[in-house]
């Protein structure tokens, strides 16, 4: 393991953020300079919220600022129009301008919560790369920058190679992504003296090409750093569950469901996730991860509290804790729970409202068929009682103080409110 002198690299290395660095010793020396170094990460606007899969990158920017350096967030209004080649079997769906702008508005929210945005020497800057990419003149771009990229090298990078080896189509549009990302770094280097590009391990090829272009044409030397691909101990991809993505915006996923996601962390992942996704001191994390048996659950609650506090705030933590207590530790009222909910009228109930429809509308099942299978498997509950009849309907007697609780398994719940 590389030994670093700069506080920033020491901290993120100890927390498990570093996968590869292009020029580790030079970067370490640059970070030891008295002036803040400027670094950036780009986020394409493919949805109106980022999910937990991007959380490690956001935390990297958070630590950069915390350790006295200046982060730049690039919202990919321009690069979203192209799409980065991935290991998927088809190219990314093309979005129109209105959809991209809507997504940019949505994903920018998380950065205002985790970063101090402003004009100060270490304040974060949020930029949209469409501001400069839309003005590129194609022939001049090819002449000035295309000559610095060889097809031989581009097809040697893992993501491109994987597509070609599977004989999957790789469009010329996607092939340009590497050039455009490198141009982004050059633009930031020349206008903002940005010297560090960061990203996930899957971005290594793009980042290496970007650093190479900046070192050829930039006003200062460029560096690259990638984080490891984060998976759970069981091998699952971070940020994906059987129920879908774990979104960071509360309008996409409730703060309680976000809290519960971390509360359900596998025992073996608690220490690693505390280091990556919280700002707790490393000494405290070392103590928390040593717990075993029932005590490890308290460490999981600490993980859930700290991640939820960063993303949703202190009040959300208190509400999530109360909801969890009401659900699992007492017979408390669910009036103030953060659970997913739907509202139905008394006339809907008396005319016959199938429970499988309620499970689907609450998001506890993706379809009526899945809801039926859940009931057949004994995993569906109404007010904590196991359901056995796939055609059972809600009855007025199912509601206590106007509420009926539905559960899919032990960890997912929703509320039907009678209005």
Tell me, briefly, the overall form. globular
Number of domains: 3
Give a quick account of the main beta sheet: strands, pairing sense, barrel closure. 6 strands, mixed
Helix content: 40-55%
Low-confidence stretches: none
Number of H- or I-type helical stretches: 19
Query: Total number of β-strand segments?
Result: 13
Per the CATH scheme, the topology name of the largest domain is Rossmann fold
**Architecture of the largest domain in CATH?**
3-Layer(aba) Sandwich
Give me the side-by-side strand order of the main sheet.
Answer: 1-6-5-2-3-4
CATH level 1 class label of the largest domain:
Alpha Beta
CATH superfamily of the largest domain: HUPs
- Whole-Å distance between the termini? 61 Å
Mean pLDDT: 88
- If you compute it from the alpha carbons, what radius of gyration comes out, rounded to the nearest whole angstrom? 24 Å
* Overall SS class: alpha/beta
- Fraction of residues in β-strands: 5-15%
Concise description?
It is built from 19 helices and 13 strands. By secondary structure, it is α/β, with parallel strands linked by helices.
Structure description:
There is one protein chain. The strands form three sheets. Strands 1-6-5-2-3-4 form a six-stranded mixed beta sheet, with helices on both faces. It has a five-stranded mixed beta sheet with strand order 9-13-12-10-11. It has a two-stranded antiparallel ribbon with strand order 7-8. With 419 residues, the protein is α/β, with parallel strands linked by helices. It has 19 helices and 13 strands. It is globular and about 75 Å long. The N and C termini lie far apart (61 Å). The protein has helices at residues 7-14, 24-31, 55-66, 97-114, 130-133, 138-145, 151-154, 158-165, 172-175, 177-192, 204-217, 255-263, 270-277, 282-288, 296-312, 314-328, 346-352, 355-361, 368-376; strands at 20-21, 38-44, 70-76, 125-128, 196-200, 223-227, 240-241, 244-245, 341-344, 380-382, 385-386, 403-408, 412-418. It has three domains: 7-227, Rossmann fold (3-Layer(aba) Sandwich); 254-328, Orthogonal Bundle (Tyrosyl-Transfer RNA Synthetase), CATH 1.10.240.10; 341-418, RNA-binding S4 domain (Structural Genomics Hypothetical 15.5 Kd Protein In mrcA-pckA Intergenic Region, Chain A, Roll), CATH 3.10.290. Helices cover 44% and strands 13% of the residues.
